[in-house]
Amino acid sequence: MFKKIAILIIIFSLAFTFKTAAGERQISFRSEETVNLKSEKLTYHLGSRTPNKLNKNLFIALEGAARRPYTNLETWENYLPSNTDLLLIEKYAFKDQELFAQTNNLKRRIKDTKFVINYVLNSIYHNDLKNIILAGRLEGGRIAPQIAAEIPEITHLISLSAGGYSLEKELKILLAKKIKDPVNEGKFFNRVKIDTQKELAAKFDIIREYPVPDAKWLNLTYKHFASLLDYESEPYLKNLEIPVLYLIGEESKLTPPEGVEYLANKFAKRNNFTFKILPGLDYRFIDQAGEDQSLKLVKKEIQNWYLKNKF
């Protein structure tokens, strides 16, 4: 134990403390860089409620497509079980906007994420962990099944506001809803002036043909978007025997809940899977009254899942 504490003190060069709005709990982070096989620096943040002390459980949180790794830090902190550390991983070139645009894509993110996780498990924890929870939201939830399938040390998987369909199929579903109900479903596609499935397919063709980093659509570069279009989580879920939890809002306009419904039907006979479509909530788990249910209803669902799986 003394050796682990000493390592933490020596290798971490930066530190910051996060407190919840209620001020009831706080988590202290140490930030460090590791270097991949191409000599590129990858940054991660390892946090604990017990500073300078490693716990036996680790919660790894993967954010959506945005560059900030701690956008929803308070939410992640509230999803932590007791005696559990929190690992946040930055995308490569997080602080360099031009380089970030050049390199940001799904394949790159998965490779870097796996590299950092394996580094932390081997070099920081020395493979001495009881439980490792991998959790992701949106893009992070999309890639989490592959990472869990390829890192056998992971013991639990949580996917938030992500489904089992490719992004191409998800957008086709969302456009069909817009066409069916243009008043309530139209804002997303009206913004990019897409009205028909033919127009949408043409846009996909352009992105696939020119996956460049200097053109954007829906706030993502073509390079990044092209890596998302055909990616599916289902092939990786097939091989997972660990407990898996999927949560999504029924009113999500960013990720259609049909993708989670599809997975629920596909894996209905698998006891290790739990799928929940939460009525009245959007992709951020905000209800129709504008109240955020992330730290209430969603937190309760996750805690019940912990109990069910004897965490």
UniProtKB/TrEMBL annotation:
GO terms for molecular function: carboxylic ester hydrolase activity. InterPro entries: AB_hydrolase_Est10, AB_hydrolase_fold. PANTHER family: ESTERASE ESTD. This is Pimeloyl-ACP methyl ester carboxylesterase. It comes from Halanaerobium saccharolyticum.
